[in-house]
Design a protein that fits this description.
This protein has about 325 residues and is an all-alpha fold. Helices cover about 75% and strands about 0% of the residues.
């Protein structure tokens, strides 16, 4: 092994810095071939034994390399797989990030099974046990569960009408249920963590509705919309509203959800329906002065503000509601 002198180390580090700047410049100017050639030289930065370079070089290479592969006109799947394989071997601290990124690449290419295998392997990987790695592991588990859901959807679509109507335990239905359990159990654990879990929640609801467990689906949607564990998320109320409408819930329940949505997004298009429900609610109370009237006034005030937006200004339905 060659031992660098102090002057050689200084020269080497300058070379690495210049090389990195040139790669960044090539990326900014969309010169992908030039960037790719320079990146091959930049791999030498891994030979630098200083703490800083040893820690950050793999991630710098991975980020720049990923950008090049995404945009280079001659990138092949083999190139992507080879590069990610290299990064998994040399970047232990970014292993989970690389696995997740690689899974996304495979999904874009329609390779669902390979992406699932990659995430399953990553899910069992342990190194260091730092907080950031534990957080990344949750994402690995979440996306593996989402792929279980995708497989469940694929198998459901392949079932015959007789299989779907047959409620006995057949091999086909049991196989389908196994994927449901794998996805559902993992997602239930994921929902114990703060975050925006939109695609995972609607996936769970889809599966629960298939098994006609509407009560559990409603419970999940209400939890996602109202629990203080999660940041205010307008989508959560839209999902709950859609579910209630689909299952013909009472107008009182629908109004409650729309009122919550109004508090977060007063300009949402569903507010037109909210106003209609308020009008209907007030009219059925024989003109008595109560809380419904004040809510209606608030709704009308909102409509006037809403009409100032150009998108709604041209909406005849909105003007019709305001007129009446």
């Amino acid at each position: 092994m060659h031992h660098y002198s102090w002057n050689e180390k200084v020269t080497f580090r300058r070379f690495v810095e210049v090389c990195q700047r040139r790669i960044q410049e090539a990326l900014l100017r969309y010169r992908w071939q030039e960037a790719a050639e320079l990146l091959r030289n930049y791999f030498q930065s891994l030979e630098d034994k200083t703490t800083f370079q040893r820690r950050w070089a793999p991630e710098v290479i991975w980020r720049m390399g990923t950008e090049i592969l995404l945009h280079h006109p001659e990138t092949r799947d083999d190139d992507i797989n080879s590069f990610h394989g290299q990064m998994k071997n040399i970047g232990l601290k970014i292993y989970l990030k690389v696995c997740l990124e690689h899974a996304f690449h495979m999904l874009c290419g329609g390779n669902l099974d390979e992406a699932h295998r990659g995430l399953t392997v990553a899910e069992s990987w342990r190194y260091g046990g730092t907080y950031s790695q534990q957080e990344l592991l949750k994402f690995i588990q979440a996306y593996r569960a989402l792929l279980d859901y995708c497989t469940w959807c694929k198998k459901r679509s392949m079932m015959s009408k007789e299989d779907l109507e047959d409620h006995t335990e057949t091999t086909v239905s049991q196989d389908l249920h196994n994927y449901f359990r794998q996805a559902f159990v993992t997602m239930q654990e994921i929902f114990k963590n703060p975050g925006v879990w939109d695609p995972f929640v609607i996936s769970c609801v889809d599966m629960l509705e298939f098994y006609e467990d509407h009560e559990e689906a409603l419970k999940l949607l209400e939890f996602y919309a109202y629990d203080k564990l999660f940041v205010p998320n307008p989508n959560a109320f839209v999902y709950l509203y859609t579910f209630l409408k689909k299952h013909q819930a009472e107008e009182k329940a629908i109004m409650k959800v729309l009122k919550s949505l109004h508090q977060h997004v007063p300009s949402h298009q569903l507010m037109l329906e909210f106003l209609e429900l308020l009008e209907k609610s007030t009219n059925t109370q024989n003109g008595s002065k109560n809380n419904g009237n004040s809510e209606l006034i608030g709704g009308l005030t909102f409509t006037l503000v809403h009409l100032k937006q150009r998108r709604i200004l041209l909406n005849k339905e909105a003007w019709h509601i305001e007129k009446h």
